[in-house]
């Protein structure tokens, strides 16, 4: 059935995205065809996360939702297309380029624009607003350009949520920042004077200047051009090379005004609780809508309006539930949150305040007159209680409310058992019950799965601590252990055990289990043994098969090859950076030929030979070692490959020698045992042919040096690596990667790759950057030393094994019949090579049917 | 276990204790069958089938040897190197099927052989 109706959406912002997504989800009959006319030149993106554009995310990373939405045949997104007018009588809209679209229903989702107060000089070069990707890209370019010559001084006009974020962004760009606030305190819409004062101190501590009661009278140019200085109303002045205006927003209601729709007293398109404007064929949603008397500059109420509109379009009767205006500042190092009746305007409201000026903490709860029901609150300096308090709004708090304000370590807030209908994630309107249901009904077993299932925590992220707590509690109820204990033999997590082993200097499994185990006489298991083997490999380096170490290894590490489904093994020689000589290729080919091994190029830029019997491994390796190859550690939780592109040596576009760097890195980190495998990639220019951002560490050449990205992987949950540092010279780059890898080795959980580790480790990516680049934990020298030792100690495991008859004894097929090959192995030819026989083929051969089944030495060459 | 008392079992020498690495297994061919022999940390020796009923491959001697508390007793175990099913080395009982069922409808538990060390020779009781 072809769609019978046409919905036109003006504006391609966050709320428009949610509206289209929800409509396509729910309109299963395909009644509506949707056209989105968007002024910005890109797909809808996460404006809330705009500031993270400065910490290395690129515009792509800000994309919202499933990109597949925009390939839906019923959805048309027209970018770079501003709507200029609406003809309500004809029910058409016309764009600035002259495109005309007829609608059955029209939705205005035009958002707001940054408000620029009428100040002289506001149009000078170097004055920016902060609303779109293009705005921040221009600001970034301007600051980067200037900072090549001097330290850039930045001023931010406006001390609200946005102004503080902009100041943080300026700082992230290496500029000085001063915030000018017209009123008496920062964030005056959300927090009270006491909170504002505490916030000012915190902001100062971050190195951002704050001037209160500071109205800007004029922006003056510099004689070299661009802005130079701000003149304040009180006669003061402030030198500035760049100015960001964050003085507020204005709804983009111009289409509605021109079309004669009702407009609110302070702007915005007036809508009723069903989000309809004064024209029943037109709705307005998001920031442009004036709902229940006001425009709301937050995304959650916008999403709620989108859902209401979709419901109405499909014949439902949903109504806007009222706005949750709770906010939390997303500035690293500053905790501020405000929710509910933060100013205590409810008649009879009681305020309970706890302030510690020394620690920079201010907390206030607003309670009903009987001090039992929570009405609102302000938290500055320590907002840890925010996630659990916000859903309790309008409900009775158990026990003494003051308990929620006391600092951590004094018993902490009582555990809240949230009712199922309490909202947990307001961005996505997810209740506690829905989160619990994800675990109980949809069988999610970790936070990631619950996020994917419910969308909770996928927008601003401020609800994540609470979501995590709910998930953990629910899992525990299901009897699913979420303890961090390694296994039944160790109550410690891997990171704790790593530290314990490193600090105590113990060198063997027996010592480790006796000192740190749950039962000193236990002998471990397939979980803790390899984990301890891996820990000892970097705390007390020794050959994998030395003494008791041999008993800790999985079969892969124990025979230094990869176990295959039939019990045979595969062999991968190291090919550093993917660079291999013709002679090397011929040597590998000859080995494969002589031992009848199935041969294939791996997904990791090297060659794998399959079907080797355990007793053949030493013979194969003797040949490979003689030809100059060494173990590729394809079997180890350790460095795998450093993938490279061809780079500047040959490529027309290359700006650095990516192959040389890849080889250098692979030789440096080879053999480094880690919580999970580690992969690196090096691309010679931004075209990224080595797919470096799909690796745990990705290096991309720039004109000035190397950019390094961390936390990428393929696999089940692919992740793009995030920018850690830019334009490093080779020496700094190597030091940075050294520290990154060892910090990971020390603190990650077992079988945790770098991406989830970065999500879990203290401070996230910023925390990692602080440790690696600024030595915030004071462990850099120690890490540098540990890596230097690793490089020094490295020896090829296979070569060492071949030289040690004791170790070679492990490779016999049968202790009592070393000359007999494993009779269970059976192969059939396929595409010119051997492959394991299937169960059916074996059975057929046993029945005497004519199936060609033979041992590994099967002749398959034609 | 009970085979020990059966008059029909014959103790067959397989290798020297020194041929076995502590807390690892080794495969042996005994009476035409593949047996996985394990040397425990205390020098004791246990034997189960080399065939892993879950993956249908002859690999159990290459698993990680450990122990697990079963009803308060520390039981010696081996985990299949293929998909980590855990077996009691003394009884062959599968303690953890790791969410899988054995291949081709095979029983999950392992066959065991009595094993002992005489002098430094490892012996397996083979039914006559
Ligand atoms: C051989 C190879 C496939 C091939 O023929 O191309 C391969 C084979 C295996 N991969 Fe892989 N992976 C191979 C490249 C990759 C790649 C591609 C790459 O490296 O660029 C990826 C995606 C990139 C990445 O790792 O982020 C990849 C992601 C995985 C994953 C998912 C990891 C994750 O973080 O989600 C697993 C599962 C795991 O490790 O838990 C896995 C696990 C495995 C295992 C260990 C599965 C197993 O237990 O048997 C396979 C080992 C077989 C063997 O004997 O070698 N393999 N595997 C590739 C060896 C590359 C090499 O030269 O060493
Ligand atoms: C830096 C920053 C941080 C923020 N942080 C938070 C936060 O932490 N929490 C929170 O809740 N909110 C936050 N917000 C506010 C949040 O981003 C907005 O509430 C939300 O984006 C509103 O969505 P919208 O779709 O109504 O408008 P927008 O996302 O602004 O989208 C409107 C779109 O319509 C386009 N448009 C306008 N007129 C036309 C036309 N005539 N024709 C075609 N297209 C048109 C615009 O170009 C724009 O792309 C933040 C905003 C910024 C800028
Ligand atoms: S994708 Fe799966 S089947 Fe293929 S090699 Fe990797 S793990 Fe094996
Ligand atoms: S409250 Fe914003 S993501 Fe949940």
From TrEMBL, chain A:
Residues 564-625 form the Nitrite/Sulfite reductase ferredoxin-like domain. It catalyses: hydrogen sulfide + 6 oxidized [2Fe-2S]-[ferredoxin] + 3 H2O = sulfite + 6 reduced [2Fe-2S]-[ferredoxin] + 7 H(+). Its EC number is 1.8.7.1. Pathway: Nitrogen metabolism; nitrate reduction (assimilation). InterPro entries: BFD-like_2Fe2S-bd_dom (IPR007419), BFD-like_2Fe2S-bd_dom_sf (IPR041854), FAD/NAD-bd_sf (IPR036188), FAD/NAD-binding_dom (IPR023753), FAD/NAD-linked_Rdtase_dimer_sf (IPR016156), NasD-like (IPR052034), NiRdtase/SiRdtase_haem-b_fer (IPR005117), Nit/Sulf_reduc_fer-like_dom_sf (IPR036136). Residues 6-289 form the FAD/NAD(P)-binding domain. Signal peptide: none annotated. Gene3D superfamilies: 3.30.390.30, BFD-like [2Fe-2S]-binding domain, FAD/NAD(P)-binding domain, Sulfite Reductase Hemoprotein, domain 1. Residues 326-390 form the NADH-rubredoxin oxidoreductase C-terminal domain. Residues 636-774 form the Nitrite/sulphite reductase 4Fe-4S domain. Residues 424-471 form the BFD-like [2Fe-2S]-binding domain. The keyword Oxidoreductase applies. Its cofactor is [2Fe-2S] cluster; siroheme; [4Fe-4S] cluster; FAD. Pfam families: Fer2_BFD, NIR_SIR, NIR_SIR_ferr, Pyr_redox_2, Rubredoxin_C. Keywords: 2Fe-2S, 4Fe-4S, FAD, Flavoprotein, Heme, Iron, Iron-sulfur, Metal-binding, Nitrate assimilation, Oxidoreductase, Thioether bond. It is an enzyme of class 1 (oxidoreductase). Catalyzes the reduction of sulfite to sulfide, a step in the biosynthesis of sulfur-containing amino acids and cofactors. Belongs to the nitrite and sulfite reductase 4Fe-4S domain family. This is assimilatory sulfite reductase (ferredoxin).
UniProtKB/TrEMBL annotation, chain B:
Residues 12-124 form the Rieske domain. InterPro entries: NirD, Rieske-like_NirD, Rieske_2Fe-2S, Rieske_2Fe-2S_sf. Keywords: 2Fe-2S, Iron, Iron-sulfur, Metal-binding, Nitrate assimilation, Oxidoreductase. Pfam families: Rieske_2. PANTHER family: NITRITE REDUCTASE (NADH) SMALL SUBUNIT (PTHR40562:SF1), PTHR40562. This is Nitrite reductase small subunit NirD.
């Amino acid at each position: 059935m072809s769609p019978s109706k046409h919905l036109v959406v003006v504006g391609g912002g966050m709320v428009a995205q949610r509206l289209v997504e929800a409509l396509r989800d729910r309109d299963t009959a395909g009644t509506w065809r949707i056209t989105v006319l968007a002024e910005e030149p890109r797909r809808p993106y996460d404006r809330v996360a705009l500031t993270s554009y400065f910490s290395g995310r690129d515009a792509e990373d800000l994309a919202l939702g499933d990109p597949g939405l925009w390939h839906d045949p019923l959805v048309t997104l027209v970018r770079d297309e501003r709507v200029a007018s609406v003809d309500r009588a004809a029910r058409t809209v016309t764009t600035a380029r002259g495109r005309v679209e007829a609608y059955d229903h029209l939705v205005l989702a035009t958002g707001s624009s940054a408000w620029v107060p009428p100040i002289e000089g506001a149009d000078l070069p170097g004055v920016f607003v902060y609303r779109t990707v293009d705005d921040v890209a221009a600001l970034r370019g301007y600051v980067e350009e200037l900072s090549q010559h001097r330290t850039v001084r930045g001023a931010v006009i406006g001390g609200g949520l946005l102004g503080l974020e902009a100041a943080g962004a300026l700082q992230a760009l290496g500029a000085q920042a001063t915030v000018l606030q017209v009123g008496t305190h920062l964030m005056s819409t959300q927090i009270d004077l006491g909170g504002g004062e505490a916030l000012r101190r915190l902001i100062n501590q971050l190195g951002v200047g704050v001037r209160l009661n500071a109205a800007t009278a004029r922006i003056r140019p510099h004689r070299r051009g661009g802005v130079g200085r701000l003149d304040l109303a009180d006669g003061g002045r402030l030198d500035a090379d760049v100015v960001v205006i964050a003085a507020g927003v204005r709804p983009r209601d111009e289409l509605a005004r021109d079309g004669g729709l009702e407009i609110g007293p302070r702007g915005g398109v007036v809508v009723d609780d069903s989000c309809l404007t004064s024209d029943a064929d037109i709705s307005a949603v998001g920031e442009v809508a004036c709902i229940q008397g006001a425009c709301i500059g937050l995304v959650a109420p916008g999403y709620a309006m989108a859902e209401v509109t979709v419901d109405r379009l499909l014949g439902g009767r949903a109504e806007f539930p009222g706005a949750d205006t709770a906010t939390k500042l997303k500035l690293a190092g500053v905790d501020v949150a405000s929710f509910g009746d933060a100013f205590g305007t409810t008649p009879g409201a009681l305020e309970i305040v706890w302030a510690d000026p020394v620690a920079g903490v201010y907390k206030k709860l607003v309670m009903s007159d009987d001090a039992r029901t929570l009405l609102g609150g302000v938290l500055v300096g320590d907002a840890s209680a925010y996630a659990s308090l916000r859903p309790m709004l309008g409900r009775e708090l158990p026990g003494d409310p003051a308990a929620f304000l006391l600092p951590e370590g004094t018993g902490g807030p009582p555990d809240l058992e949230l009712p199922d209908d309490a909202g947990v994630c307001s961005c996505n309107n997810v209740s506690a019950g829905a989160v619990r249901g994800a675990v109980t009904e949809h069988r999610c077993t970790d936070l990631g799965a619950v996020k994917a299932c419910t969308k909770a925590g996928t927008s601003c992220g401020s609800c994540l601590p609470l979501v995590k707590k709910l998930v953990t509690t629910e899992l525990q109820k299901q009897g699913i252990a979420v303890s961090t204990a390694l296994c039944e033999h160790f109550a410690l997590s891997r990171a704790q055990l790593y530290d314990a082993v490193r600090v105590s200097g113990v060198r063997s499994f027996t010592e480790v289990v006796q000192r740190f185990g749950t039962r000193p006489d236990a002998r471990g298991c397939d979980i803790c043994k390899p984990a301890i083997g891996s820990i000892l490999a970097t705390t007390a380096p020794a050959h994998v098969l030395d003494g008791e170490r041999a008993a800790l290894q999985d079969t892969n590490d124990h025979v230094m090859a990869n176990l295959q489904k039939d019990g045979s093994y595969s062999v991968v020689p190291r090919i550093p950076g993917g660079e291999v000589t013709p002679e090397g290729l011929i040597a590998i080919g000859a080995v494969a030929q002589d031992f009848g091994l199935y041969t294939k190029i791996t997904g990791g830029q090297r060659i794998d030979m399959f079907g080797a019997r355990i007793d053949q491994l030493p013979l194969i390796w003797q040949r490979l070692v003689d030809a100059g190859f060494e173990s590729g550690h394809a079997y180890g939780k350790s460095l795998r490959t450093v993938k490279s592109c061809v780079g500047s040596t040959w490529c027309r576009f290359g700006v650095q020698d990516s192959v040389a760097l890849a080889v250098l890195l692979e030789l440096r980190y080879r053999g480094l045992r880690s919580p999970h495998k580690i992969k690196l990639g090096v691309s010679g220019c931004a075209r990224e042919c080595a797919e470096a951002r799909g690796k745990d560490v990705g290096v991309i050449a720039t004109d000035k040096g190397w950019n390094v990205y961390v936390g990428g992987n393929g696999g089940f949950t692919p992740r793009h690596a995030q920018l850690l540092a830019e334009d490093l010279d080779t020496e700094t780059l190597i030091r940075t990667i050294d520290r990154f890898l060892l910090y990971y080795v020390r603190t990650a959980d077992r079988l945790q790759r770098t991406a989830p580790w970065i999500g879990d480790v203290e401070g996230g990516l910023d925390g990692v950057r602080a440790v690696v680049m600024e030595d915030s934990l004071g462990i850099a020298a120690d890490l540098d030393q540990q890596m230097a030792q690793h490089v020094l100690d490295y020896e090829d495991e296979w070569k060492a094994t071949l030289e040690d008859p004791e170790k070679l004894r492990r490779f016999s097929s049968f202790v009592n019949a070393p000359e007999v090959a494993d009779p269970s192995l059976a192969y059939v030819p396929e595409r010119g090579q051997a492959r394991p026989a299937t169960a059916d083929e074996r059975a057929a051969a046993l029945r005497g049917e004519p199936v060609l089944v033979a041992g590994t030495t099967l002749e398959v060459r034609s | 276990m009970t085979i020990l008392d059966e008059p029909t079992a014959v103790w067959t020498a397989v290798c020297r204790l020194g041929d076995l690495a502590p807390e690892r297994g080794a495969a042996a061919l005994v009476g035409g069958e593949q047996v996985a022999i394990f040397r425990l940390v205390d020098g004791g020796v246990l034997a189960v089938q080399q065939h892993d009923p879950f993956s249908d491959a002859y690999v159990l001697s290459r698993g990680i040897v450990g122990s697990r508390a079963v009803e308060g007793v520390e039981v010696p175990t081996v985990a299949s190197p293929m998909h980590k099913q855990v077996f009691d080395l003394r009884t062959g009982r599968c303690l953890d099927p790791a969410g899988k069922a054995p291949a081709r409808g095979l029983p999950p538990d392992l066959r065991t052989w009595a094993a002992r060390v005489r002098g430094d020779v490892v012996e397996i009781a083979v039914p006559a």
